[in-house]
Backbone:
């Protein structure tokens, strides 16, 4: 039977509408978490954290080069990549939804033309609106925080190929749909394994519709060749890593091509050790899924929490389920289930594919990911180390995107039902208001998903880098206060003279060697005149040696352990005592060596007075200087310009004049003060940093008996940051 031509024009229109939505709300710069890392690595062809995402990096760089002709800022270019891939995925799922609804109405003799043609289009449009405006989908599509929109695009294309193959399975050449689907899933896996999630649904569809195709020699051979070709993209990792880009996480260098090939084609089970470790994410040491990191019931509730956010996030700032959003969430849950019921009535193959894909993207994925207790869902009694460090809703972006289209199918069914037994123009018009349910996510998610005009992460990174003196070292506590610095240095070229050290990474074998390599005199990047704000004295020449004088063998041999006897660490005129029994990890020991070998030429800064400075027992010698804590080996009570704040502010020292100059003349605060909504609660510590800085400035100014006008201004600024730090004017729970 000849199949009707798919509505490609409508699908393109739906994709264009989604793209327009994302462009209107597009982030103009970077954001927190992995956004900065991916923008930077795409721009410089670097290696992001394992497994390295080579497809994204190469596509991102090619995209970057194409769009560079327009003069658009680099972060806007990469954010557009997320917007385009997500919106094109919407177009492909539009085609899938339309096909399923056509099959459903084909068996409904009570629906006459032209409504049997129009209802599927309306249902697919409703699904496109819901899917593209679901909170997590929207939030990941207007800023390139992760690599998942590219994975969603692969899932959507494979789903369309699966439905097309089902319709044409008996036609000559139909096997190419399957070969292309296999190629795209495996190629997509070099971006992220999420792209492989349609495989169970495709496999079951083949077994039900035409299992003998699995014995077709031509299709099998072509599929094997497709797999080999697609996986070859991973050769980018060892080839580029050997060139030592400035961001080279995991350093997956291989001595031989054969070793790299074995690692790639065994998925890290053998071959080149460094590449194998990268591909298997060995660095993260996650336990097997049989060893649950939280009770399965809690993990399922965590998924429902994120599902609850998708359809009306703005109804309440409360993060946990069971509030004003619940009726909406239950409505959209029911509509999605109705959509699956329509898939059954359309064709058993449609239900097998969509039902299996839905199961894989929800329940199976929850089990496989095996998360710790939810960041905001866990009971207060659960310690922080047993919780996820942030919300993980982005892992389910494909689930929410698909569910949006199932809701669209359910709305088509509701419209058809409300129009009566024999729908006609009048009854369908009267029933049409039910379709306005599709606009609910668009209305109630807008304020929470909108990123237009938000420079908060960029300005946070800028302010922190400018707090560091020329050629200084800054020890950061984690990726969220590191990646924006990488973005500023590698994309905008700001303060490349600063050596940013991620303390967590010092525990690896590769990172300390890289730091030493990139800070050697011949590779040390210079302080730029345009970064000179006249606050710090600029050394006449760069440092004469790398940050540590330890050999590679000494760095590799350094491990973690308990001190067997008392140890003394000399810091020029003073010494830090570590009594026997003190635990010092590899990271802390290497940090001590770096401080010892660098402090004569490089100012030492910490991203906060807590963290490493406290662990090393050096917090008594640190002075707040803007957003960092500067190591100053002297009697701080007698130091010129240094003020000790009150006990209610930690009794910390602050360099009042330098910090005031930075705060008033250098820092930028876009999106950080007096914000309406700060959607990502896991990053609220960022505005709290500014709130605390201004409180300390005000306290120090008061103790120095500065003008009342200055003191009042500083307290007012602190209040502005406190509004954001509590979630924003409209986001305070």
Residues:
């Amino acid at each position: 039977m000849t199949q009707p031509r798919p509505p490609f024009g409508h699908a393109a229109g739906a994709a264009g509408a989604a793209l327009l939505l994302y462009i209107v709300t597009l982030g103009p710069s970077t954001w927190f978490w992995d956004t900065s890392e991916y923008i930077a690595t795409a721009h410089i062809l670097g290696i992001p954290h394992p497994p390295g995402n080579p497809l994204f990096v190469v596509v991102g760089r090619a995209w970057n080069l194409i769009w560079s002709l327009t003069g658009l800022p680099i972060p806007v270019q990469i954010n557009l990549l997320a917007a385009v891939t997500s919106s094109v995925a919407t177009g492909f799922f539009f085609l899938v939804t339309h096909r399923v609804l056509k099959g459903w109405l084909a068996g409904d003799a009570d629906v006459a033309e032209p409504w049997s043609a129009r209802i599927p289009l309306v249902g697919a449009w409703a699904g496109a609106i819901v899917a593209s405006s679901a909170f997590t989908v929207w939030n990941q599509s207007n800023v390139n925080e992760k690599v998942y929109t590219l994975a969603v695009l692969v899932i959507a294309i494979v789903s369309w190929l699966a439905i097309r193959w089902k319709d044409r399975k008996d036609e000559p050449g139909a096997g190419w749909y399957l070969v292309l689907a296999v190629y795209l899933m495996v190629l997509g896996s070099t971006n992220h394994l999420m792209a492989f999630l349609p495989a169970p649904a495709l496999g079951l569809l083949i077994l039900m519709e035409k299992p003998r195709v699995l014995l077709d020699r031509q299709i099998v051979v072509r599929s094997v060749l497709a797999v080999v070709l697609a996986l070859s993209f991973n050769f980018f990792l060892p080839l580029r890593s050997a060139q030592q880009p400035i961001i080279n996480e995991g350093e997956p260098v291989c001595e031989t091509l054969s070793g790299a090939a074995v690692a790639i084609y065994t998925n890290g089970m053998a071959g080149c050790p460094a590449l194998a470790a990268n591909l298997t994410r060995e660095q993260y040491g996650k336990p097997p899924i049989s060893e649950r990191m939280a009770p399965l019931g809690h993990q399922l509730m965590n998924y429902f929490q994120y599902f609850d956010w998708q359809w009306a996030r703005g109804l309440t700032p409360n993060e946990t389920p069971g509030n004003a959003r619940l009726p909406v969430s239950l409505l959209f849950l029911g509509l999605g289930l109705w959509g699956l019921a329509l898939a059954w009535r359309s064709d058993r193959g449609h239900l097998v594919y969509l039902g299996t894909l839905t199961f894989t993207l929800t329940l199976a994925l929850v089990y496989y990911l095996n998360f710790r207790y939810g960041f905001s869902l866990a009971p207060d009694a659960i310690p922080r180390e047993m919780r996820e460090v942030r919300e993980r809703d982005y892992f389910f972006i494909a689930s929410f995107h698909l569910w949006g289209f199932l809701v669209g199918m359910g709305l088509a069914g509701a419209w058809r039902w409300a129009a009566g037994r024999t729908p006609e123009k009048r009854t369908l018009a009267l029933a049409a208001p039910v379709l306005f349910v599709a606009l609910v996510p668009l209305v109630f998610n807008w304020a929470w998903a909108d990123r237009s005009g938000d420079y908060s992460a960029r300005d946070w990174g800028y302010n922190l880098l400018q707090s560091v003196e020329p050629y200084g070292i800054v020890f950061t506590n984690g990726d969220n206060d590191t990646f924006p610095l990488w973005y500023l240095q590698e994309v905008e070229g700001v303060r490349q003279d600063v050596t940013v050290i991620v303390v967590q990474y010092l525990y690896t074998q590769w990172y300390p060697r890289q730091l030493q390599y990139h800070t050697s005199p011949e590779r040390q990047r210079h302080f730029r005149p345009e970064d000179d704000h006249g606050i710090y004295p600029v050394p006449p020449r760069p440092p004469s040696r790398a940050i540590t004088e330890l050999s590679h063998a000494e760095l590799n041999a350094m491990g973690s352990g308990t001190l067997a006897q008392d140890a003394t660490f000399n810091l020029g005129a003073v010494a830090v005592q570590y009594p026997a029994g003190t635990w010092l990890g590899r990271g802390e020991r290497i940090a001590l060596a770096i401080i010892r070998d660098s402090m004569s030429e490089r100012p030492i800064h910490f991203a906060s007075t807590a963290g490493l400075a406290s662990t090393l027992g050096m917090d008594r010698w640190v002075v707040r200087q803007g957003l960092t804590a500067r190591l100053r080996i002297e009697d701080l009570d007698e130091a010129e310009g240094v003020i000790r704040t009150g006990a209610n502010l930690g009794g910390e020292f602050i360099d009042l004049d330098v910090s005031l100059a930075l705060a008033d003349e250098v820092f930028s605060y876009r999106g950080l003060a007096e914000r309406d909504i700060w959607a990502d609660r896991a990053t609220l510590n960022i505005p709290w940093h500014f709130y605390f800085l201004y409180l300390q400035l005000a306290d120090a100014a008061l103790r120095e008996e500065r003008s009342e006008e200055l003191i009042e201004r500083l307290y007012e600024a602190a209040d502005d940051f406190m509004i954001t730090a509590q979630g924003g004017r409209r986001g305070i729970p």
Q: What stands out?
A: The chain is about 50% helix and 5% strand. The first helix runs from residue 8 to 24. The chain has a mean pLDDT of 94.
